[in-house]
Amino acid sequence: MAQHVCPSVFVTGATPKDDTLGAVSLEHELIARALDGDGRAFAGLVEPHLPVLYRIAARACRDRALAEDAVQEALTLAFERLSGYQPGTSFRAFLAAFAVRRAQTLLRGERRRRTREDAADAPSSLPNPADLARAHQAAERVRTALEALPEKRRAVAMLRLDAGLSYAEIAQAVGTTEGSARVLVHMALKELREQLADLVREGETSEER
Amino acid sequence: MNDLDHEHDERDLEALFDATAEAATGAQLTKLKARAADVPGRRRRPLWLLWAPFLAVAAGFFAVLMLRGNPEGEQARLPSATTTTSLQAPSVAGVAPTPAPPAEEPASDEGDETLAGLDDLDDGPSTDVLAAPLDDADEEELDVWLAAADSFLEEG
Question: In Å, how far is B45's CA from the nearest CA of chain A?
């Protein structure tokens, strides 16, 4: 468990000697201000992680507005738990955990919606150009493969492949040990590889060309 | 599967995920940042405010119950209100339109001065009671009190 470091040490003390220490102090100061209700501080704190949070949310649903709402809901959840965040641990992992949780909910809704839509609308009827349609279908395949995974494996797969977290960060996000996170990621990727083998091969051949 | 294969698989999947990921546009990121700035303010609302609408409805319901209860209370108190009016009747007798004329004119200036202060007390609900038509029992009671008032004034 990381130690709580008093922000005043960094704010009033000597200049931090390395960037990591400076980043931690800035992060700590922003957290303190955000907890006091400073919206700009909270926005500054989460801004570097917004692309990842959006990517996770958008992975779960096709609707951009829904994905944006999901990011905001994840941020609200994160703010509610902000006082419990341990400075020095990965803030990206802290935020990504909430985004993945929201994404899981979105995926369930998306599955129901797709079941309804597929009954009435065949994918071939998409008005988009062929490339766009293929990309769209590939995204759908990935989404479907993720949905097929058990919840925890799905979470670690998204944290690994969309958020780009390390095993230690994934362990922090899902509340397990690093070893367990490694095993979970391994199993999740193996299942994904099996389900998406044709898409992966397609990607490989296009890269070779 | 060895580690090399696993790393290879992971790289392939990463490439696939990157290719199928939807990146946020600049405008979206700006919007998300603005929405993030709103989060602390929205969260800082006290939790009890969530209950405010329900509390307001409950208070309204309670108020309606109280108001509904009051007319019954008024009706229950009406006889005593009439009695109170009757007790004050000597001062009002001159202005009350309905009572039967007293046997003798009570009007002595001294008596009017004595009872003048009571006129001020006749505002409000009791006025409505006086304005309402009197039944026989009330008229008899009023006559008795007027007679009593007359004898009191005569004695005084």
Answer: 10
Separation of alpha carbons A138 and A56, rounded Å: 16
A108: how many CB neighbours lie within 10 A of its CB? 13
Number of structural domains chain A divides into: 1
Strand partners of residue A87: A89
Structural domain boundaries enclosing A202: 7-208
Whole-angstrom distance, CA of residue B58 vs CA of residue B32: 38
The verdict on residue A54 lying in a domain is: yes
A199 vs B: CB within 8 A: yes
User: Does residue A149 belong to the interface with chain B, where contact is any CB pair within 8 Å?
Assistant: no
Whether A2 maps to a domain, the answer reads no
Q: What is the DSSP string of A67-88?
A: HHHHHHHHHHHHHHTGGG--BT
Q: How far apart are CA A98 and CA A158, in angstroms?
A: 12
Question: What angle in degrees, to the nearest 10, is found between the helix axes of A50-60 and B26-43?
Answer: 100
Q: Flag whether A165 is in a domain.
A: yes
Mutation site for A-interface testing, chosen from B2, B18, B35, B50 by largest number of A Cβ within 10 Å: B35
Reading the block at residue A96, the tokens are 């990504």
Of B13, B23, B37, the CB nearest to A39: B37
Q: Which residue, among A169, A191, A167, has the nearest Cα to A181 in the 3D structure?
A: A167
What's the CATH code of the domain at A47? 1.20.140.160
Nearest to B39 among A59, A75, A192 (CB): A75
Q: Tokens 């349609």 belong to which residue?
A: A133
Reading chain A (209 residues) residue by residue, the pLDDT tens digits are 333 333 333 333 444 455 666 777 888 889 999 999 999 999 999 999 999 999 999 998 878 898 999 999 999 999 999 999 988 899 999 999 999 999 888 887 776 776 666 665 544 444 556 777 777 888 999 999 999 999 999 999 999 999 999 999 999 999 999 999 999 999 999 999 999 988 887 766 665 55
Tell me if the pTM is above 0.95: no
Q: Which two tokens stand for residue B14?
A: 């990463």
Is the Cβ of A24 closer than 8 Å to some Cβ of chain B?
A: no
Q: Provide the ipTM.
A: 0.76
Let me know if residue A99 belongs to a domain.
Answer: yes
